[in-house]
Amino acid sequence: MRTRNEILVGSVVILGIAIVVVGTIWLKGEGMGRDQIEVRARFTEIGQLLEGNGVKLRGVPIGRVNRIALDSAGHGVIVTMRINEDVTLPEDPVALLSPESMFGDWQAEIAPRSDFDNYNYAESPDPNVLPGYSLPDISRLTAVADEIAENMATLSERVELAFTEETALRLGQSVENILDASENVSSLVSSQRGAVETVSRDLQAATRTLGRAAAVVEEVLNQTEEAISEERLVQIVADVERTASRTAELADTLLAVGRDIRVAAATADSTMRTLGELAAGVERGEGSVGRLMSDTTLFVSIRESNLELQALLRDIRENPRKYFSVRVF
Question: For labeling, which of 125, 193, 203, 235 is most exposed (least CB within 10 Å)?
Answer without folding.
Answer: 125
